[in-house]
Amino acid sequence: MTDIYNGAPVNEPERQMYFIEECKKLIDGMGLFADGKKPTYHISTFGCQMNFRDSEKLAGVLESIGYTLIDSEKADLVLYNTCTVRENASTRVYGRIGYVGKLKKEKNPSMVIGICGCMMQEPDEVEKMQKSYGFIDIIFGTHNSYKIAELLYTLLMNRKAKEKDPSLKTRVIDVQKEATGIVEDLPVKYDSTFRAGLNIMYGCDNFCTYCIVPYVRGRERSRRSCDIIREAQDLVAKGVKEVMLLGQNVNSYGKGLEEDITFAMLLDKIASVQGIKRIRFMTSHPKDLSDELIEVMARHENVCKHIHLPLQSGSSRLLKRMNRHYTKEDYLLLVKKLRDAMPDIAITTDIIVGFPGETEEDFIETLDVCETVSFDSAFTFIYSKRTGTPAATFEDQVPEDVVKERFDRLLKVVSRCSAANAARLVGTVQEVLVETVGHELSDNSSGNTVESISTPDGTTALTGRLGNNLLVHFVGRKRLIGEIIKVQIDECKDFYYIGRQI
Ligand code: 5AD
Ligand code: SF4
Predict the structure, then answer these.
(1) Does ligand 1 have an atom closer than 6 angstroms to the CB of 350?
(2) 203-226 pLDDT, tens per residue?
(3) Which ligand does the CA of 201 lie closest to?
(4) Which atom of ligand 2 is closest in space to residue 204's alpha carbon?
(5) Residue 131 and residue 204 in one domain
(6) Is 433 found in the same domain as 409?
(7) pLDDT at 441
(8) Last residue of a domain, one of 285, 302, 319
């Protein structure tokens, strides 16, 4: 089949732009959609912001080929962008794949099904897909998702060849073990017109002993600051108000680049981009959070006073076993420095319960940090054993019932603290980025929904995001979506607010 690549440029992104055009021609030429219908696609994304950002890039390429997005898996092309950070993420993926296989068999045999993302960087998972899910057409990983046009082209050519020789296999599998360079300048389809994720780096070098990410996302690679700034400027020109800088550990940005730059320097540059209204970033590793960064955050009004600072555990003994490179005291000192510089800063975190060897004493240390810091919100996770990570081989795994009991206790403390913090804003006026019509909200106690607020004057229930990352529901005109406005915070419902536009 190698001759199908004759004429393709060697360098990226030119090569993929070439395959985008070839796919277009093929789809038209094959008369696949001769009835004038545009082919449709659907991407189902699991996991973190990184994956969502990757899906926007996949969507950008597919739309350039001529596919149109639809909101269900009854599409001509369905992609699953998978996550493997905890076991339940993987389980959910298998559920969806079973469903789509049935759809393909019963409704649309020519459907293209692709699976990509972190799970596909694990050889065992790829083998399982190959053996047990014959209907999957394309398998690729995190390091080469920019190649979707080329992979799709190969599949379509394989299908063409099979028409002549039915004994041929069509499936395309391309998983790269290691990342090669960063490919810039391919098309992107942004999910939102006013909020955007912006990758500043890829991969992780930290090897926390519980975590699979360094194995599936590869070594740390930072993008050049000029490429990042250019993208930030483009986003502003498109009307984006809020930019989220993304990296597994943004605080170690710059390592390995020719230019001499730190994350604090980069943030300073981005915050100075003309017209950029709000900047957030995640995730910050406590071991690399510098005084310089705190100073830059405090100095720029458009940097949200919010930091996501994963604690993982409050026990210095466990933190050592987790390979986190900080102690409970180091963490508390960082929080103090952040609050000294920015008294209203919202601090959110990730916590793992039931890491191997966690004793009641260790767990009490975690509760103690939660009480002391009083996090604005915390993502709490039950430890999940990931094959291939050092912690999976630790012998002192904690019994399930003990973990469950600790998890419930932690949740109570965390919820109480975040509700108390949230309540502090009642009575204040806050800047809010209006995001959606507020249909998600339902107040279970009364059975009312905010949508049910009657608005004969053409206003509707809206939802917006505060600088602290919490949502507020209020009534306003739909055209405010995408704007930053002032809202009076009237009521706190623990995890969200009810307010009034002023
Ligand atoms: N088990 C439970 N939680 C995990 N995380 C990462 N790996 C695991 C695991 N094996 C959590 C960490 C991390 C977040 C993204 O996911 O808290 O910060
Ligand atoms: Fe995983 Fe640790 Fe890297 Fe975060 S810093 S992605 S928890 S290895």
Answers:
(1) yes
(2) 999 999 999 999 999 999 999 999
(3) 2
(4) 3
(5) no
(6) no
(7) 46
(8) 302
Place 4 in a pLDDT band, splitting at 50, 70 and 90.
confident
- 420 and 433 together in one domain: no
Closest residue by Cα to atom 14, ligand 1, is 350
How buried is residue 34: exposed, middle or buried, by Cβ count under 10 Å (0-12/13-18/19+)?
exposed
Domains in the chain: how many in total? 4
Q: Which two tokens stand for residue 218?
A: 């590869």
Spatial distance between the Cα atoms of 79 and 73, rounded to a whole number of angstroms: 9
Distance 385 CA to ligand 1 centre (A): 10
Q: How far is the CA of 83 from the centre of ligand 1 (A)?
A: 12
Q: Which atom of ligand 1 is nearest to the CA of 48?
A: 15
pLDDT band, residue 135 (cuts 50/70/90): very high
Query: Cβ contacts of residue 223 below 8 Å, gap of 6+?
Result: 182, 184, 199, 200, 201, 202
Task: Specify the residue with its C-alpha closest to ligand 1, atom 9.
Answer: 384
Question: Are 219 and 168 in a shared domain?
Answer: no
Distances (CA, A) of 456 to 19, 92, 459: 52, 42, 7
The reply to whether 24 and 151 lie within a common domain is: yes
Quick one: 61 and 162 in the same domain?
yes
363 lines ligand 1 (CB under 6 A): no
Tokens of 140: 């690729």
Residues 414-448: tens digit of each pLDDT: 999 999 999 999 999 999 999 999 754 444 433 34
Residue 355 Cβ < 6 Å to ligand 1: no
Q: Are residues 89 and 163 in the same domain?
A: yes
Q: Report the atom number in ligand 1 closest to the C-alpha of 210.
A: 10
453 is a domain residue? yes
